[in-house]
Amino acid sequence: MQTTSIRGRLSLTRLGVGGAQLGNLGRTIDDAQSQAVVDAGWERGIRYFDTAPHYGLGLSERRLGAALAQYPRDEYVLSTKVGRLLVDTPETADQVDPGGFQVPATHRREWDFTRDGVLRSLEGSLERLGLDRVDIVYLHDPDFHWETASTEGIQALIDLREEGVVGAVGVGMNQSAMPAAFIEHTDIDVVMLAGRYTLLEQPALADLLPLAAARGVGIVNVGIYNSGLLARDRVPADATYNYLPAPPELVARANRIAEICERWGTTLPTAAMHYGLDHPAIAAVVVGCRSAAQVEDAVRRVEADVPAGLWLELASEELIPATGE
55 catalytic, yes or no? Predict the structure, then answer.
């Protein structure tokens, strides 16, 4: 599979597997299904895998580490995140995690972007993963913690990068303005951007993407289906957007795009995949998968041909920005 270099520090396959579903996001899967996801990705040439302590209170990291253990460590790129410490809560172990993951609430998440918090978080991740290093570490959702995250937090990661403990450092967020500020004021290598550059909406075109391209910072684009709205050929009325019920006007807009895709012999999710990859700043798209079949679907979409005329018609209908905007 085609790869892209991140500031000369490491290379990412253009498609990566996201690990939220391996942490039982929204529904339960078992260890065998998790292994099947990783195996299917590996077989199809995917060599980038992403996870976080937040995903299933560490379950995703444990499953991903176990699933990758059979593969040569130098042949894949693994990223995780810091900023949410997992604190033992045995008193709530009989309850379900309130964070949206179908796991026992054996821990609670505690925001901590201090140097000590970053180091403790990464130490815990390495233990769960069963590894002595990771390739990329992101500050995870520091939206309300700019002062600490942009100083202590990112400097701790930069120090680890300089020591060779991690390969590249960055931030992962659901907005574009603050990651752009991180690029302006800190020495990051990569941004994981969630849902802000998709076939449905492109706010990152106004700030983050041009700046990242100019500074050589790689963008890992995630949430390209807008949490399900663009994941099927036609959009049902009960589709979700940002993990909530989608507003009717967005459902209608997505279905207009789907109709045009069909006229050009392609599908809405295939077009969403290609659009999500098609910017000079974007190094990779990462898609969350809970089954081998979903991995296969993602790979087929990447490999499919999308007619250039589709983008011209979508732009003429003002459904996406015209080229150059």
Answer: yes
Q: How many domains does the chain contain in total?
A: 1
pLDDT digits (tens, 9 = 90+) for 14-63: 999 999 999 999 999 999 999 999 999 999 999 999 999 999 999 999 99
Q: Against a cut of 0.85, is the pTM above it?
A: yes
Q: How many C-beta atoms surround the C-beta of residue 318 within 10 A?
A: 8
d(CA 234, CA 16): 25
Catalytic residue among 55, 138, 225, 241: 55
Range of the domain at 310: 3-228+272-316
Which CATH number belongs to the domain containing residue 297 in this structure?
3.20.20.100
